[in-house]
Specification:
Layout lengths: L3 H16 L3 E4 L6 E2 L3 E2 L2 H24 L6 E6 L4 H8 L8 E4 L12 H12 L7 E6 L1 E4 L5 E3 H7 L9 E3 L5 E3 L3 H13 L4 E5 L19
Parallel strand pairs: 1-4, 4-5, 5-6, 6-11
Antiparallel strand pairs: 2-3, 7-8, 7-10, 9-10
InterPro entries: Chitinase_II/V-like_cat, GH, Glyco_hydro18_cat, Glycosyl_Hydrlase_18
GO molecular function: chitin binding; chitinase activity
GO biological process, one term: carbohydrate metabolic process
């Protein structure tokens, strides 16, 4: 890790410069955690977070070296309470501009309910700097029984016209597909702003509905 980090940062810097990118987003799912097992030992968890902290601090140092004051570092995390505490403990908010809470893929029932979004926001701002947090909103749905995902575009195409107030539709066979309709996305956005968060994070825009042409940089007022 100590040998690879400087070289990786240099290669990252070359890539950013070549394509004139705005910065870098780190998405490690998840330090000290294995799917199917849960969190590993305290020693392994802390080792992963120490490595992650060194990586983001090295990235910020690389930005400073090139005088890239406008470049940003962002990071996604799962809002389970423990990850917020670990991010704070390892000083990661000191150098990361935005921390994107992945407030979706919740197990059991609706995978990204309004209540879950509120709990994630309230929990996050109690531990981390609110202005560095964004509430994650999904542009996809998940089957209530199988967990299989479906893009919002597919949902709209199949159930047109899709009521903006609706957050679930019946699935083939048993169960339903839970998603965030237009009204829920609006409500989540307004809640995030009211709580003083930095905004919302979309996962991901490529799954949005394309019934009408997409206009780059189009801003909608809520």
């Amino acid at each position: 890790m100590q040998i690879l980090r400087p070289r990786s940062c240099q290669e990252l810097g070359n890539f950013i410069a070549k394509y004139d990118l705005d910065g870098v987003d780190y998405n490690w799912e998840y330090p000290g955690y294995r799917f199917g097992q849960g969190y590993l030992s305290e020693e392994e968890v802390n080792a992963d977070y120490k490595g992650l902290s060194k990586l983001v601090f090295s990235t910020r140092a690389m930005f400073a070296k090139y005088k890239w004051n406008s470049k940003v570092i962002t990071m996604a995390y799962y809002p389970d309470g423990r990850q917020e505490q670990l991010l704070k403990e390892h000083r990661i908010p000191e150098v990361v501009d935005l921390l994107h809470m992945m407030s979706y893929d919740q197990g059991g029932g609706h995978h990204s309910s309004m209540d879950y979004g509120k709990r994630s926001a309230d929990q996050g701002k109690g531990i981390l700097p609110p202005l560095q947090l964004t509430m994650g909103v999904p542009f996809y749905g998940r089957h209530s029984r199988t967990g299989e995902w479906t893009t919002y575009e597919d949902l709209v195409q199949k159930h047109w016209p899709l009521d903006p107030k609706v957050d679930s539709v019946a699935a083939a066979g048993q169960g339903s597909i839970g998603f965030n309709g237009v009204d829920t996305i609006r409500e989540k956005t307004l809640y995030a702003l009211k709580q003083g968060l930095g905004g919302v994070m979309i996962w991901e825009v490529g799954q949005d509905c394309r019934l009408v042409p997409v206009v780059p940089a189009l801003v909608s007022e809520f």
